[in-house]
Structure formats: structure tokens, C-alpha cells
Amino acid sequence: MQKRFWRVGRHIKAEVVRVIDENGKQLGIFPLNQALQIAESKGLDLVEIVPDADPPVCRIVDFGKFMYEQKKKEKEMRKAQKEIEVKEMRFSPTIQDRDIDIKVRKIEEWLTEDSSKVKVVVLGKGREALHEEVLMKTMEKVIRNLEGVVQIEKPPYKEGRNLVAVISKKRK
After folding, report:
1. Strand ranges (DSSP E) for 67-145?
2. Among 10, 93, 104, 124, which is disulfide-ready with 161 (CB 3.0 to 4.6 Å)?
3. Sign (positive or negative) of CA dihedral 36, 38, 41, 47
4. Superfamily for 9-78?
5. What is the pLDDT of residues 142-152, one digit of tens each?
6. Over the stretch 22-65, which tens digit does the pLDDT of each residue have?
7. How far is CA 144 from CA 86, 93, 94, 104, in A?
């Protein structure tokens, strides 16, 4: 998340600003010096809220209290975010069908226990990396075994020597 820097008081670069008082009421457009005098007369700070607007929007607030509330809002937003975990299952192009079945069951287990995504990787070692069709056959077997249970987020693509696909639980 990007850190936001607030311009306060004399650090505001605009010559004319739109001023909002501590109650959220719009006071109007004033020259910067006059806006600073209004803020000082109330014993508060002038903080540039929307620097990109024309003219920039400034609010008259207690800067310490304002920063505290901003951090509190940021913390609540982070708490509300859902973190998606991406697990990885690797396959060799020479893997046997029985071993594919075992690994596919593990993938299904991961997808049912939590709403994570699974990165399916078919490893291309040495000369195997040159034969993309062999890697693709293994990837197709895995995807075929998972049919109906998963949806493909990212179709198979080449990542270095490996063939990679990202899958997630099928949405209803």
C-alpha cells in the first residue's frame, strides 16, 4: 500500500484553495493566506485533502487527530481485505497416472479447505524443456482429472523451462 503524504499549512503549494471547515461544511474558495488565517483563528491546521482538484481542496482540522483517523481507516481497510494464498503443486512430465491421481486429490483438498488458488507446474528439466508438447500432455491430464471441480484462472503458459497454469475453486 502506498504511503500518503499530506501538505499542511505553509507547505501547501496552491495559491487559491477550496476550504472545508471542521464540521464538513464548505466555506468557499479563498486565497491560501486567507485560508491559513481562518484555520489559525480556530486553532486548527489547514490540510490539503485533494491536491489534484482545481482548485485543491483543503480541510480545517486538528492534524494529529486527522492522522490518527486516517491510520484507523487504513487498518480497517486492511482487515477487510481477503488474502489469497497461492499453493503450488509440481509435476514431472514422466509422472505415472496413479501419481497424478494422488496429487490431484491433494489439490482438490486444498481447494475445498480454503479459498486459495493452486499453481500447477509441470517441470521441464534438461531436454524435456525443449519438448513443450510433452509438458502440455501432462498438464492436460492434470486439468482433465480436475474437470468440474476447478476453473482455470490462467491457462497454461511457459515460465522459463516450466509449463504453469493457475487454477481456483469453481464458483457456482
Report:
1. 86-91, 117-122
2. 124
3. negative
4. Translation initiation factor 3 (IF-3), N-terminal domain (3.10.20.80)
5. 888 888 888 88
6. 888 888 888 888 888 888 888 888 888 888 888 888 888 888 88
7. 21, 15, 17, 10
Q: Cα(147)–Cα(59) distance, rounded to whole angstroms?
A: 56
The type of residue at 67 is M
Q: What is the CATH number of domain 86-169?
A: 3.30.110.10
The CB density around residue 145, as the number of other CB atoms within 10 Å, is 18
Show me where the domains of the chain are located: 9-78, 86-169
Treating both helix axes as pointing N-terminal to C-terminal, what angle do 97-113 and 132-145 enclose, rounded to 10 degrees?
Answer: 50
- The reported pTM is 0.53
